[in-house]
Design goal:
This protein is an alpha+beta fold. It has helices at about 10-30, 40, 55-65, 65-70, 90-105, 115-145, 145-170, 175-205, 210-245, 250-270, 275-295, and strands spanning about 35, 45-50, 75, 80-85, 110-115, 175.
């Protein structure tokens, strides 16, 4: 099935497919469709469970106080749950919204409040966690293999992060701390797939000097040896993740969605992004060294 696929020399096609999807995600972000939860931007979250009265979103919005009626974001949680998110409120306003929801739904309503400064701090820490993970990965792969492999792995991981965030924006899902956990999980999964291919490339590479045609063929051969394993592993992982997305509640569904997109993107990038980037960088470096040698 994959014997005739040239994974390296058809890099323009693979990059174009990713480029189209990434451009769609970036456009969605530019249009303001990336929604940050209260974990990052601050605000108040009201959660009602086991409501005795079932209202649609419009009916519930009409029952909220006028000062949050327009700005409130309302979401159903299963069959009898509701979640309402508002900007930062003072204690009196918070109590009014809570009472309004209790009277409208006939349910207990819990309140979670996050200040804007704390949300900003959480956002900064989340970015630092992702950046630290990427730097540690680069260091590990550089020591384990060489810098060319680390650069290729980094390209694949950045691709996976942008793809996951982009699809969040496209479908309008909320980015929260669960999303950060999912992204870090995706980084580990994607790296696992990439390292398997890199290990096979190193095993198949001759010990003598670099030759581009020979190295590209080694990459193609290595991918063909492990691609079925990568696809079968990813499909096996995506089955329970998809079930979690379909049947899980709000927080679990958000986590599952990030995993679904990230694992699919990670499987693709390990084969069609990391390996061509490795080939292109090695060829560029060899050409640069050759030019320097001739000049000397």
């Amino acid at each position: 099935m994959f014997a005739r696929v040239d994974f390296v020399r058809r890099w323009r096609l693979w990059f174009a497919i990713s480029g189209i999807l990434l451009a769609a995600g970036i456009l969605a972000i530019a249009l303001g469709r990336l929604e940050f939860g209260i974990d990052f931007q601050g605000g108040v979250q009201f959660t009602a469970t086991d409501a005795s009265r079932q209202l649609d979103e419009g009916e519930l919005r009409d029952r909220l106080p006028s000062f949050v009626e327009r700005e409130a974001v309302i979401q159903r949680l299963g069959d009898s749950g509701y979640e309402v998110r508002t900007p930062v409120l003072d204690r009196q306003q918070t109590n009014r919204v809570q009472r309004s929801m209790q009277e409208a739904l006939g349910a207990e309503v819990s309140v979670t409040s996050v200040s804007p400064s704390f949300g900003e701090q959480v956002r900064d820490q989340a970015l630092q966690a992702v950046a630290a993970a990427l730097l540690i990965i680069v260091f590990f792969i550089t020591i384990r293999y060489e810098f060319a492999f680390a650069l290729a792995a980094m390209a694949a991981l950045v691709h996976d992060i942008l793809m996951t965030v982009g699809f969040y924006a496209i479908v309008g899902r909320e980015v929260n701390l669960v999303t950060v956990v999912a992204v870090l999980t995706v980084l580990g999964y994607s790296l696992y797939d990439t390292v398997i291919i890199f290990d096979r490339i190193r095993e198949n590479s001759p010990s003598v000097g670099y030759n581009r045609r020979r190295f590209d063929e080694v990459i193609n051969t290595s991918i063909r040896q492990v691609i079925r394993r990568s696809i079968y592993t990813s499909v096996s992982t995506l089955i329970p993740v998809t079930a979690l997305l379909i049947f899980g509640r709000s927080t679990l569904a958000d986590f599952a969605f990030a995993l679904l997109v990230g694992i699919a993107a990670g499987t693709y990038s390990s084969i069609f992004i990391a390996s061509p980037v490795l080939s292109l960088y090695k060829a560029w470096r060899a050409g640069k060294l050759g030019s320097a040698t001739r000049a000397a």
